[in-house]
């Protein structure tokens, strides 16, 4: 039997402020095949990542994650699926600045209802090169180090799907390569499939599956 796609979308449309902000006819990602969600600014990439993570329900269409219909399973089902199977590196990182980087990871585990795992947490921080900074506050780290914390935090619950929103667009070529190397390496070590949303076309050669989004108005024209 063929494995279900990790992600499947059909005829998904979402509106905000009275206008369409996301329109996808069809899009899918098989498990284990890293994807690049490419689209111009304003094409709905962040909106789509949020929908895949179950953080919003689009107005119309079918979205499935790991064979689960995200609309049908309700709020509690989406929260459970996200906690168990999705890690997100947000564009603005959204670290909790009042607590240490280790506590940022501990909180992500606790909020997913998972038992503490100090050994796993230490191993993750070693993997991203921050074991010696685990008691530092996010404000004491460089932006690149904070991004490493955000990647570690996204992986702390061993997700099947790792989402990253615009992780490279403001970076020079060498730093951009380093960030994608980090995401690919950490996704591989965690057994996660990576989906990067970006308008940064430099990433086209780095991820095997290309998923393209057009601006909803352009698609309709
Ligand atoms: N709550 C909202 N109310 C009104 N408009 C919104 C809302 N959320 C998003 N939008 C608009 O919807 C469009 C798509 O937003 P989104 O952030 O998903 O795009 P994006 O492709 O990720 O853009 P970028 O590459 O600039 O981050 C944008 O024009 C944005 O201004």
UniProtKB/TrEMBL annotation:
InterPro entries: AAA+_ATPase, ABC_transporter-like_ATP-bd, ABC_transporter-like_CS, ABC_transpr_LolD-like, P-loop_NTPase. Pfam families: ABC_tran. Gene3D superfamilies: P-loop containing nucleotide triphosphate hydrolases. GO terms for molecular function: ATP binding; ATP hydrolysis activity; transmembrane transporter activity. Residues 7-216 form the ABC transporter domain. This is ABC transporter ATP-binding protein. PANTHER family: ATP-BINDING COMPONENT OF ABC TRANSPORTER-RELATED (PTHR24220:SF611), IMPORT ATP-BINDING PROTEIN (PTHR24220). It comes from Niveispirillum lacus. One of its GO terms (cellular component) is plasma membrane. Keywords: ATP-binding, Nucleotide-binding.
């Amino acid at each position: 039997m063929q494995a279900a796609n990790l992600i499947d979308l059909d005829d998904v449309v979402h509106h905000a402020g009275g206008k369409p902000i996301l329109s996808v006819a069809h899009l899918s990602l098989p498990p284990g095949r890293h994807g690049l969600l490419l689209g111009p600014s304003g094409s709905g990439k962040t909106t789509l990542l949020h929908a895949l993570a179950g953080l919003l329900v689009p107005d119309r269409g079918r979205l499935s994650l790991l064979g689960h219909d995200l609309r049908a399973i309700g709020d509690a089902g989406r929260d459970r699926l996200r906690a168990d199977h999705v890690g997100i590196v947000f564009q603005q990182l959204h670290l909790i600045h009042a607590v240490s980087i280790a506590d940022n990871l501990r909180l992500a585990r606790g909020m997913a209802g998972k038992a503490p795992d100090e050994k796993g947490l230490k191993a993750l921080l070693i993997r991203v090169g921050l074991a010696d900074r685990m008691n530092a506050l996010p404000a004491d780290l460089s932006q690149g180090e904070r991004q490493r914390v955000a990647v570690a935090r996204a992986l702390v619950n061993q997700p099947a799907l790792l989402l990253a929103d615009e992780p490279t667009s403001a970076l020079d070529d060498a730093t951009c390569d380093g960030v994608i190397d980090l995401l690919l390496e950490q996704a591989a070590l965690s057994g996660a499939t990576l989906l990067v949303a970006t308008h940064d076309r430099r990433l086209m050669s780095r991820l095997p599956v290309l998923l393209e989004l057009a601006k909803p108005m352009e698609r309709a024209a």
